[in-house]
Amino acid sequence: MKCSRILLITSLLFSNFLFAQKMDDSLDKTNRAKFEPENGKCLVFVGQDMDAIGGLSEYSDGYCDHFEIPAGITLYTNFSPGTNSYGHINKGNDGIKTTDNWGAGDSCVQCYMKISDFSHSLVAIGLAFVDHEKQLAQGDHDNLIRDLANWIKGLGKRPVFLRLGYEFDGWDWNHYNRKHYLAAWKRVHRLFKELGVENVAFVWQSKGTGSGQDVLEEWYPGDELVDWCGYSYFGNPDTEMLVFARKHGKPVFIAEATPVTQKGDLYFNTDLKDPKIAVRVWQDWFVPFFRTVNNYQDVVKAISYINENWASQPMWINNPTFQQVDSRIQVSPYISEKWQEEISKPRYLKPGPDLWKQLWKE
User: Fold this and answer.
1) What homologous superfamily does CATH list for 39-359?
2) What gap in Å lies between CA 16 and CA 167, rounded to an integer?
3) Which pLDDT belongs to residue 30?
Protein backbone atom coordinates (compact mmCIF):
# COMPACT_ATOMS: atom_id res chain seq x y z
CA MET A 1 0.00 0.00 0.00
CA LYS A 2 2.80 2.37 0.95
CA CYS A 3 4.49 1.68 -2.39
CA SER A 4 1.22 2.34 -4.25
CA ARG A 5 0.73 5.67 -2.43
CA ILE A 6 4.28 6.70 -3.30
CA LEU A 7 3.70 5.83 -6.97
CA LEU A 8 0.40 7.73 -6.96
CA ILE A 9 1.96 10.81 -5.36
CA THR A 10 4.90 10.65 -7.76
CA SER A 11 2.52 10.34 -10.71
CA LEU A 12 0.45 13.31 -9.51
CA LEU A 13 3.55 15.43 -8.97
CA PHE A 14 4.87 14.58 -12.43
CA SER A 15 1.49 15.35 -14.00
CA ASN A 16 1.40 18.70 -12.20
CA PHE A 17 4.94 19.41 -13.39
CA LEU A 18 4.00 18.67 -17.01
CA PHE A 19 0.86 20.80 -16.71
CA ALA A 20 2.83 23.70 -15.20
CA GLN A 21 5.48 23.37 -17.92
CA LYS A 22 2.79 23.37 -20.62
CA MET A 23 1.21 26.45 -19.06
CA ASP A 24 4.60 28.19 -18.91
CA ASP A 25 5.25 27.34 -22.57
CA SER A 26 1.79 28.58 -23.53
CA LEU A 27 2.25 31.81 -21.55
CA ASP A 28 5.69 32.32 -23.09
CA LYS A 29 4.27 31.91 -26.60
CA THR A 30 1.41 34.31 -25.84
CA ASN A 31 3.79 36.96 -24.52
CA ARG A 32 6.24 36.70 -27.39
CA ALA A 33 6.28 39.29 -30.16
CA LYS A 34 5.32 38.53 -33.77
CA PHE A 35 7.51 35.64 -34.98
CA GLU A 36 9.73 35.79 -31.89
CA PRO A 37 11.44 32.45 -31.12
CA GLU A 38 11.27 30.98 -27.67
CA ASN A 39 13.84 32.05 -25.11
CA GLY A 40 17.35 30.86 -25.87
CA LYS A 41 16.70 30.44 -29.62
CA CYS A 42 17.89 32.63 -32.48
CA LEU A 43 17.08 33.00 -36.19
CA VAL A 44 19.97 33.36 -38.66
CA PHE A 45 19.50 35.31 -41.90
CA VAL A 46 22.01 35.88 -44.71
CA GLY A 47 22.08 38.72 -47.26
CA GLN A 48 22.23 41.24 -48.72
CA ASP A 49 22.02 40.52 -52.46
CA MET A 50 21.64 37.48 -54.69
CA ASP A 51 25.37 36.92 -55.21
CA ALA A 52 25.84 37.00 -51.45
CA ILE A 53 23.02 34.53 -50.81
CA GLY A 54 23.52 32.25 -53.81
CA GLY A 55 21.52 29.06 -54.11
CA LEU A 56 20.24 29.78 -57.65
CA SER A 57 21.56 28.53 -60.97
CA GLU A 58 22.72 31.99 -62.04
CA TYR A 59 23.93 32.93 -58.53
CA SER A 60 25.87 29.84 -57.54
CA ASP A 61 28.82 30.94 -55.40
CA GLY A 62 27.09 32.51 -52.44
CA TYR A 63 26.54 31.45 -48.87
CA CYS A 64 23.89 28.83 -49.67
CA ASP A 65 26.23 27.08 -52.12
CA HIS A 66 28.73 26.36 -49.36
CA PHE A 67 26.65 26.06 -46.19
CA GLU A 68 23.27 24.80 -45.09
CA ILE A 69 20.46 27.17 -46.06
CA PRO A 70 19.83 29.45 -43.07
CA ALA A 71 16.50 30.21 -41.44
CA GLY A 72 16.06 33.28 -43.61
CA ILE A 73 17.40 35.56 -46.34
CA THR A 74 17.72 39.35 -46.45
CA LEU A 75 17.09 41.52 -49.51
CA TYR A 76 16.03 45.13 -50.14
CA THR A 77 13.50 47.40 -51.81
CA ASN A 78 12.24 50.99 -51.66
CA PHE A 79 9.32 53.40 -51.74
CA SER A 80 11.42 55.97 -53.62
CA PRO A 81 10.17 56.24 -57.22
CA GLY A 82 12.27 58.47 -59.46
CA THR A 83 15.40 58.33 -57.32
CA ASN A 84 18.60 57.71 -59.29
CA SER A 85 20.91 55.24 -57.57
CA TYR A 86 24.11 54.49 -59.50
CA GLY A 87 22.30 54.68 -62.84
CA HIS A 88 19.21 52.80 -61.73
CA ILE A 89 16.01 54.86 -61.65
CA ASN A 90 13.76 53.49 -58.91
CA LYS A 91 10.17 52.64 -59.73
CA GLY A 92 9.26 51.71 -56.16
CA ASN A 93 9.21 48.15 -54.84
CA ASP A 94 12.31 47.49 -56.94
CA GLY A 95 13.88 44.10 -56.28
CA ILE A 96 10.68 42.45 -55.08
CA LYS A 97 9.13 40.85 -58.17
CA THR A 98 11.87 41.83 -60.65
CA THR A 99 15.66 41.63 -60.59
CA ASP A 100 17.07 45.11 -60.00
CA ASN A 101 20.46 46.54 -59.12
CA TRP A 102 20.93 50.03 -57.71
CA GLY A 103 24.68 49.77 -57.15
CA ALA A 104 24.82 47.11 -54.44
CA GLY A 105 24.16 43.80 -56.18
CA ASP A 106 21.10 42.18 -57.72
CA SER A 107 17.93 41.88 -55.66
CA CYS A 108 14.83 39.79 -56.43
CA VAL A 109 12.89 38.41 -53.49
CA GLN A 110 10.32 36.63 -55.66
CA CYS A 111 13.12 34.69 -57.38
CA TYR A 112 13.73 32.83 -54.12
CA MET A 113 10.10 32.32 -53.22
CA LYS A 114 9.55 29.92 -56.13
CA ILE A 115 12.61 27.72 -55.45
CA SER A 116 11.99 24.49 -53.52
CA ASP A 117 15.24 24.78 -51.53
CA PHE A 118 13.89 28.03 -50.04
CA SER A 119 10.30 26.88 -49.61
CA HIS A 120 10.48 27.36 -45.84
CA SER A 121 12.88 30.29 -45.68
CA LEU A 122 11.91 33.38 -43.74
CA VAL A 123 12.37 36.74 -45.44
CA ALA A 124 13.76 40.03 -44.14
CA ILE A 125 13.20 43.06 -46.37
CA GLY A 126 15.05 46.34 -45.90
CA LEU A 127 12.62 49.03 -47.09
CA ALA A 128 14.05 52.51 -47.70
CA PHE A 129 12.10 55.70 -48.40
CA VAL A 130 14.76 58.40 -47.99
CA ASP A 131 13.58 61.78 -49.34
CA HIS A 132 10.09 60.31 -49.77
CA GLU A 133 8.91 60.21 -46.16
CA LYS A 134 6.63 63.26 -46.62
CA GLN A 135 5.03 61.89 -49.81
CA LEU A 136 4.61 58.53 -48.11
CA ALA A 137 3.01 60.11 -45.04
CA GLN A 138 0.49 62.14 -47.04
CA GLY A 139 -0.64 59.23 -49.19
CA ASP A 140 1.21 59.87 -52.46
CA HIS A 141 2.71 56.36 -52.43
CA ASP A 142 -0.30 54.40 -51.21
CA ASN A 143 -0.25 52.37 -54.42
CA LEU A 144 3.26 51.15 -53.59
CA ILE A 145 2.27 50.32 -50.02
CA ARG A 146 -0.73 48.31 -51.19
CA ASP A 147 1.27 46.53 -53.88
CA LEU A 148 3.91 45.39 -51.38
CA ALA A 149 1.31 44.53 -48.74
CA ASN A 150 -0.65 42.33 -51.14
CA TRP A 151 2.53 40.63 -52.37
CA ILE A 152 3.57 39.80 -48.80
CA LYS A 153 0.04 38.63 -47.98
CA GLY A 154 0.24 36.35 -51.02
CA LEU A 155 3.14 34.48 -49.40
CA GLY A 156 0.63 32.88 -47.05
CA LYS A 157 2.16 31.71 -43.77
CA ARG A 158 5.74 32.61 -44.70
CA PRO A 159 6.97 35.04 -42.00
CA VAL A 160 8.30 38.34 -43.38
CA PHE A 161 10.31 40.82 -41.33
CA LEU A 162 9.83 44.31 -42.78
CA ARG A 163 12.61 46.73 -41.79
CA LEU A 164 10.68 49.88 -42.52
CA GLY A 165 12.91 52.96 -42.93
CA TYR A 166 15.93 51.05 -41.61
CA GLU A 167 18.81 52.99 -40.02
CA PHE A 168 16.51 55.95 -39.39
CA ASP A 169 19.31 57.63 -37.39
CA GLY A 170 21.95 57.35 -40.11
CA TRP A 171 22.10 61.12 -40.40
CA ASP A 172 25.02 61.11 -42.86
CA TRP A 173 23.34 58.91 -45.46
CA ASN A 174 19.61 58.68 -44.71
CA HIS A 175 18.72 62.17 -43.40
CA TYR A 176 15.10 61.29 -42.59
CA ASN A 177 12.81 64.01 -41.27
CA ARG A 178 11.56 62.74 -37.90
CA LYS A 179 8.03 64.15 -38.12
CA HIS A 180 7.40 62.75 -41.61
CA TYR A 181 9.24 59.49 -40.86
CA LEU A 182 6.95 58.72 -37.93
CA ALA A 183 3.84 59.70 -39.90
CA ALA A 184 4.98 57.50 -42.82
CA TRP A 185 5.53 54.55 -40.49
CA LYS A 186 1.99 54.93 -39.09
CA ARG A 187 0.46 55.10 -42.56
CA VAL A 188 2.26 52.00 -43.81
CA HIS A 189 1.34 50.07 -40.68
CA ARG A 190 -2.33 51.15 -40.96
CA LEU A 191 -2.66 50.17 -44.62
CA PHE A 192 -1.07 46.78 -44.01
CA LYS A 193 -3.55 46.20 -41.20
CA GLU A 194 -6.51 47.32 -43.31
CA LEU A 195 -5.44 44.88 -46.05
CA GLY A 196 -5.28 42.03 -43.53
CA VAL A 197 -1.57 41.26 -43.86
CA GLU A 198 -0.88 38.89 -40.98
CA ASN A 199 2.44 37.34 -42.01
CA VAL A 200 4.52 40.49 -41.45
CA ALA A 201 6.52 41.69 -38.45
CA PHE A 202 7.54 45.37 -38.36
CA VAL A 203 11.20 45.91 -37.45
CA TRP A 204 12.40 49.35 -36.30
CA GLN A 205 16.15 49.53 -36.92
CA SER A 206 18.83 51.91 -35.66
CA LYS A 207 22.25 52.33 -37.25
CA GLY A 208 23.64 50.78 -34.08
CA THR A 209 25.99 53.34 -32.60
CA GLY A 210 25.88 56.92 -31.41
CA SER A 211 22.18 57.23 -30.62
CA GLY A 212 21.38 57.37 -26.92
CA GLN A 213 18.12 56.52 -25.18
CA ASP A 214 16.73 60.02 -25.67
CA VAL A 215 17.19 59.86 -29.47
CA LEU A 216 15.71 56.38 -29.65
CA GLU A 217 12.65 57.46 -27.66
CA GLU A 218 12.14 60.50 -29.93
CA TRP A 219 12.19 58.37 -33.07
CA TYR A 220 10.25 55.39 -31.73
CA PRO A 221 6.93 54.83 -33.59
CA GLY A 222 5.40 53.24 -30.47
CA ASP A 223 4.95 49.82 -28.89
CA GLU A 224 1.70 49.19 -30.77
CA LEU A 225 3.37 49.80 -34.16
CA VAL A 226 6.68 48.00 -33.62
CA ASP A 227 7.08 44.23 -33.33
CA TRP A 228 10.89 44.05 -33.16
CA CYS A 229 13.70 46.50 -32.45
CA GLY A 230 16.78 46.22 -34.63
CA TYR A 231 20.23 47.63 -35.14
CA SER A 232 23.31 47.33 -37.34
CA TYR A 233 26.52 45.76 -36.01
CA PHE A 234 29.60 46.95 -37.87
CA GLY A 235 32.79 48.52 -36.55
CA ASN A 236 31.74 50.21 -33.33
CA PRO A 237 28.61 48.52 -32.02
CA ASP A 238 27.05 49.61 -28.74
CA THR A 239 24.31 48.31 -26.47
CA GLU A 240 21.87 51.24 -26.55
CA MET A 241 19.25 49.38 -28.60
CA LEU A 242 19.56 46.32 -26.37
CA VAL A 243 18.82 48.49 -23.34
CA PHE A 244 15.94 50.18 -25.18
CA ALA A 245 14.43 46.88 -26.34
CA ARG A 246 14.49 45.40 -22.85
CA LYS A 247 12.76 48.51 -21.54
CA HIS A 248 9.99 48.19 -24.14
CA GLY A 249 9.71 44.41 -23.98
CA LYS A 250 10.72 43.86 -27.62
CA PRO A 251 13.00 41.23 -29.19
CA VAL A 252 16.06 42.44 -31.09
CA PHE A 253 17.04 41.71 -34.68
CA ILE A 254 20.70 42.46 -35.44
CA ALA A 255 19.55 43.13 -38.97
CA GLU A 256 22.89 44.03 -40.57
CA ALA A 257 26.17 42.54 -39.41
CA THR A 258 29.48 42.44 -41.25
CA PRO A 259 33.09 42.51 -40.00
CA VAL A 260 34.38 46.07 -40.01
CA THR A 261 37.37 46.65 -37.74
CA GLN A 262 38.49 50.14 -36.84
CA LYS A 263 40.28 52.31 -34.34
CA GLY A 264 38.72 55.74 -34.17
CA ASP A 265 38.32 56.92 -37.77
CA LEU A 266 40.92 54.46 -39.10
CA TYR A 267 39.50 51.36 -40.81
CA PHE A 268 41.52 48.19 -41.23
CA ASN A 269 41.53 45.71 -44.10
CA THR A 270 39.00 42.93 -43.46
CA ASP A 271 39.42 40.94 -46.66
CA LEU A 272 38.69 37.39 -45.48
CA LYS A 273 40.50 35.92 -48.51
CA ASP A 274 43.78 36.72 -46.74
CA PRO A 275 44.45 33.90 -44.20
CA LYS A 276 46.29 36.13 -41.73
CA ILE A 277 43.60 38.80 -41.87
CA ALA A 278 40.91 36.14 -41.44
CA VAL A 279 42.44 34.94 -38.16
CA ARG A 280 42.65 38.51 -36.85
CA VAL A 281 39.11 39.35 -37.93
CA TRP A 282 37.71 36.27 -36.22
CA GLN A 283 39.26 37.38 -32.93
CA ASP A 284 38.60 41.10 -33.33
CA TRP A 285 35.05 40.96 -34.74
CA PHE A 286 33.38 37.54 -34.81
CA VAL A 287 34.24 36.62 -31.21
CA PRO A 288 32.80 39.89 -29.78
CA PHE A 289 29.82 39.62 -32.10
CA PHE A 290 28.84 36.14 -30.96
CA ARG A 291 29.58 37.13 -27.37
CA THR A 292 26.94 39.84 -27.73
CA VAL A 293 24.48 37.45 -29.38
CA ASN A 294 24.91 34.88 -26.61
CA ASN A 295 25.18 37.25 -23.63
CA TYR A 296 21.88 38.89 -24.57
CA GLN A 297 19.84 35.78 -25.35
CA ASP A 298 16.80 37.29 -23.62
CA VAL A 299 16.50 39.94 -26.35
CA VAL A 300 18.68 39.02 -29.35
CA LYS A 301 16.42 36.60 -31.22
CA ALA A 302 17.59 37.12 -34.84
CA ILE A 303 20.77 38.07 -36.70
CA SER A 304 21.49 38.75 -40.37
CA TYR A 305 25.01 38.34 -41.66
CA ILE A 306 26.04 40.30 -44.77
CA ASN A 307 28.08 37.79 -46.79
CA GLU A 308 29.40 40.35 -49.24
CA ASN A 309 32.39 41.29 -51.35
CA TRP A 310 31.70 44.94 -50.58
CA ALA A 311 34.75 46.28 -52.41
CA SER A 312 33.45 44.93 -55.74
CA GLN A 313 30.24 47.01 -55.79
CA PRO A 314 29.84 50.61 -57.09
CA MET A 315 27.99 51.75 -53.98
CA TRP A 316 30.85 50.78 -51.66
CA ILE A 317 34.05 50.85 -53.69
CA ASN A 318 34.89 54.38 -52.53
CA ASN A 319 33.22 54.14 -49.15
CA PRO A 320 35.88 54.37 -46.39
CA THR A 321 33.99 51.93 -44.16
CA PHE A 322 33.49 49.11 -46.68
CA GLN A 323 36.03 49.61 -49.47
CA GLN A 324 38.45 47.12 -47.84
CA VAL A 325 35.82 44.56 -46.82
CA ASP A 326 35.23 41.12 -48.28
CA SER A 327 33.05 39.44 -45.66
CA ARG A 328 32.22 36.28 -47.62
CA ILE A 329 32.63 33.44 -45.15
CA GLN A 330 33.22 30.82 -47.83
CA VAL A 331 36.46 32.45 -49.04
CA SER A 332 38.19 31.60 -45.74
CA PRO A 333 38.56 27.96 -44.64
CA TYR A 334 39.42 29.19 -41.14
CA ILE A 335 36.36 31.43 -40.80
CA SER A 336 34.15 28.78 -42.44
CA GLU A 337 35.13 26.19 -39.84
CA LYS A 338 34.66 28.58 -36.92
CA TRP A 339 31.35 29.88 -38.25
CA GLN A 340 30.00 26.38 -38.85
CA GLU A 341 31.01 25.35 -35.35
CA GLU A 342 29.02 28.25 -33.86
CA ILE A 343 25.82 28.16 -35.91
CA SER A 344 25.53 24.36 -35.64
CA LYS A 345 24.58 24.83 -31.99
CA PRO A 346 20.93 24.05 -31.14
CA ARG A 347 20.38 27.73 -30.28
CA TYR A 348 20.25 28.60 -33.99
CA LEU A 349 17.00 27.53 -35.64
CA LYS A 350 16.73 25.82 -39.02
CA PRO A 351 14.15 26.44 -41.77
CA GLY A 352 11.23 24.09 -42.13
CA PRO A 353 7.49 23.70 -41.50
CA ASP A 354 8.12 23.13 -37.80
CA LEU A 355 9.86 26.50 -37.56
CA TRP A 356 6.84 28.29 -39.02
CA LYS A 357 4.61 26.57 -36.47
CA GLN A 358 6.92 27.66 -33.65
CA LEU A 359 6.90 31.28 -34.77
CA TRP A 360 3.17 31.67 -35.31
CA LYS A 361 1.34 32.25 -32.01
CA GLU A 362 -1.74 30.21 -32.93
Assistant:
1) Glycosidases (3.20.20.80)
2) 47
3) 66
